[in-house]
Every structure is written in structure tokens, then in C-alpha cells.
Specification:
mainly alpha; two-stranded antiparallel sheet
Amino acid sequence: MENVNWGRLRDQLLVVLAAIALVWVASQLIGRITHIVVVVLLAMVLAYALEPALKAAERYLPRMLAAILIYAIALGLLAAAVAILGPTALVQGESLAERIPGYLDQLSRYTPIQGVDLSGQVRAFMASALSSAVTVVETIAGGVVDTALVLILGFWFMVDGRRIPDVIARLSPVAQRDKIRFVEDTVSQVLGAYIRGQLTTAAIIGVSAGVGSALLGVHYALLIGILAFLFELVPMVGPILGSLPAIVISIFQPFPLVIEVIAFFIAMQLFENNILAPRITGGAVGLHPGVALLAIVVGADIGGIVGALFAVPVAGIISVLVAAVYKGWRGEPVVVERAGMRFRLPRRKHITTT
């Protein structure tokens, strides 16, 4: 016990307590400014998703022109996808909306609980939700404004976002700059890799779900693919949610289509877990599945769907920082490896004077 540096231990405990307090304060603030946080996070997602293409274009063009070029290409591809898929998706959506009452009536006839009008209850719930919702015009207007803000902020993050770490470093004490750079590098690598991995995986799963459903003869295959893409963005539980639309729709088609659909999505889930996830998302940024699931539960409780979406990368960042603090406390070289990524804090050189 004589070798324990009590002053250093006290300082480290104070830092941990301050970090816990900071996280708690941030969670409270996020709950009050959720809409702003969502817009900023979506802009960051856009910037991180386009960063590899921006770096490639920056070899030949100034960063501003490279960002404009990448933005134009990305928006052009998005517009083309909407133009090609939009009309079909709209037709399928209208057709599904028309058939929902019939599906509910058919389902209510097979309800095992006598006296339960499932169709009437669902219709009453939908009517209540519609009556309490904002008007369609307000929703569309708000969506247009939010989209514009996301595009503008995303472009700014691409062009000038990297200056923020430089400003923070210049305003920080010289002795702490290496640690600040370490934190910034950890956040950038983990969050960027996770976002790009999730988007890539979601695109592959969405296309596979849509094409597979079409080949099996499931109705509304395009809608199924779009929903599978969106649900796949939710970690851990997304693949299960993504399979439900196809399974539910196939129930109302001739048997044994539903069995074939279930088998198809099980095979796709095995393919994702054993091939896609290890190579693209890096096994949830190096987290144990149980830890990742716990992070999603906590994130959903704090920030709803947005909290669930970003819970896993935040937990991955925290795990790297905790490991770095522990190694530094033990006096070991601060080198942390997670899911193929390597984080290293340079050792400070001690200058002696004579």
C-alpha cells in the first residue's frame, strides 16, 4: 500500500465522477432538445457516410469543390432512385392501405379469444392516432425544413467539420492535447466506421429482402425491401423487425408461402451474422453482443429511437476510452484495439534540464 499514489488515484476518481455527471447532464439535455439533436446526428451520419468518397476526390480537387462534387453525385443518385422506385412504392403503398381492412377482418375471424373485435380495435386506434396527429401540411413542411437543415449541416461538416478538433486542441493545455486528439480520433474512427458499416449492411439486406420476396411471390416486395433497409439500421433487433412485414403479408397468401418466407429470412440472418457483420460492421465495433444489447436498451430509454440507433457506437467509444484510462493508470503503453481499429496515445517525452 505504500506504493499507491493516492493523489493520482484521487484525481482519477474525480475524473470518473465528473464524466458520469457529464453523461447524466447530457442525457437530460438531449431529452429536452431531441429534435435539434436528431437533425445534427443525421447531418453527421451524412458527412461520415460520404467521407471516404470525399477523401478520394480531395486528391484531385480542393476540399470545397470535392465536397460539392460528391454532394451533387450523391443527390443525383438519390433522385434517380426516387424517380425509379418512387412510383412503384407509392402504388404498392396505396394497394396495401386498401387491403389492410380486409386483412384485419380476416385476422379477427381467427382470433382465439371470443368476443374480441381485433379489427374494430385496430381501426379505433388508427382513428385516434390520426385525430391527435399534426396535419399533413405541417408534417410535410417540417420534413422539408429538416431535410434542408440536414443537407446544409452535413455539407458544413464535410468542408469545415475537421477544423473543430483543431480549435479545441489549440484552446486546450499543451499537456492535454495528445489525450484530446486520442479522444477525437476514437470518436471519428468508431462512429465513422459504424455508420458506414450499418448503411452498407442495410443496403445489402434491403435489396436482398426485396428481391427475395419478389422471387418467392410475396406481395409488395418493394415496400418489404424499403422497410428491411430502415429496420436494419436499428442494431441487434433490426433484422427481426425487418422480416416481420414479409411474414405478415405472406400469411394472407396461399400456404406454404409463409414457411418459405420464414426459411428465407432465417437464411438471410445467418448470412448476415456470419459473413456481412464480421466483414462490414466489425462485430458491433468490438462489443460483446450482451453489452451491445444492454447499450441499446439504455439508449432507447434515454433517447428513444435515436438513442437506440447510436447506443452501440457510443458504447464502443466508451469502451475504448475506459481501456485507455485503465492502461494509463497502470503505466502501460496506451494502445487499444477494437474490431480491426487501433488507437494509440503517444507517450509524452520527459524533458530534463541540467
